[in-house]
Amino acid sequence: MSIKPNLPDLKVRYNLVTSQNRIPLVVNGTVDLECGSTTNNLERQKQVQFSNNFFVVGTRLLTDKATGIKDYADLKGKTVVTTSGTTSERLLKEYNDKNKAGINVISAKDHGESFLMLQNGRAQAFMMDDVLLAGARAKSADPAKWEIVGTPMSYENYGCMMRKGDAEFQKVVNDTLSEVFKSGEVNKMYAQWFEQPIPPKNVNMEFPMSDKMKEIISNPNDKAADE
Questions:
Q1: Which of 127, 148, 176, 194 has the greatest count of CB atoms below 10 A from its CB?
Q2: C-alpha gyration radius of the chain
Q3: CA distances from residue 69 to 4, 140, 183 in whole angstroms, order as listed
Q4: What pLDDT score was predicted for residue 9?
Q5: How sure is the predictor about 10, in pLDDT bands with cuts at 50, 70 and 90?
Q6: How far apart are CA 43 and CA 41, in angstroms?
Q7: pTM of the complete model beyond 0.90
Q8: Domain 57-155 maps to which CATH number in 3.10.20.580, 3.40.50.1010, 3.40.190.10, 2.30.29.30?
């Protein structure tokens, strides 16, 4: 890509973040750019600023095919795990309270622990962004055992987080994303990581590009998911 900051001595250092600490680490300066599964929403925009959206997901359920669970209405009396500090956790609790759905909601510290609770039977479903569910399924010992089900409770726009007030840095990030989108490079990248076997273990996400993702590529914007 041709867009580069004029910083010859720039060194990139990667930091591991979780759903709980990602915003504080950006705000306090430990991390300059967080680019992961972070939903761009109005509440978070009070603390950080976002790049243009680069991904769109739906909040759905991962479950063992043998359970017969197909949608949220099938969860009465069931235990559902979600990851602490995520949009999915808030949505599931709101849905449960509003509809008196009778769901036992439990929260795990990260996505790996959430899927482990599903695998060991502590939960009958795992609610999260569908792309993350597809990743958990692909990495499991028996991907064919698990299926992603349910009408999306919401659609979430992922954006890169950075500290508020740095318009110049935001422009560099947005210009880079725009170049990837306009050049068509995004289609090759998407196919490589979401529709083909990934070395060295050759796991396959089997996650085709959605119409909503195609819209983001055609019309880049930083609109919040709940705007």
A1: 127
A2: 18
A3: 48, 19, 41
A4: 83
A5: confident
A6: 6
A7: no
A8: 3.40.190.10
- Distance (Å, whole) CA 124 – CA 66: 10
Report CA-CA distances (Å) from 125 to 71, 114, 118, 120: 10, 9, 6, 11
Q: According to the model, what pLDDT value does residue 1 have?
A: 47
Q: What is the CATH number of domain 22-55+156-218?
A: 3.40.190.10
Residues of the chain with CATH 3.40.190.10: 22-55+156-218, 57-155
CB 105 within 8 A of CB 128: no
Contact (Cβ atoms closer than 8 angstroms) between residue 75 and residue 101 = yes
How many residues are there in the chain?
A: 227
Tell me the DSSP string of the chain.
-----S-TT---------TTTHHHHHHTTS-S-B-SS-B--HHHHTT-EE-S--EEEEEEEEEEGGG---SGGGGTT-EEEEETTSHHHHHHHHHHHHHT---EEEEESSHHHHHHHHHTTS-SEEEEEHHHHHHHHHHSS-GGGEEEES--S-EEEE--EE-TT-HHHHHHHHHHHHHHHHHSHHHHHHIIIIIS-BTTTTB----PPPHHHHHHHHS-----TT-
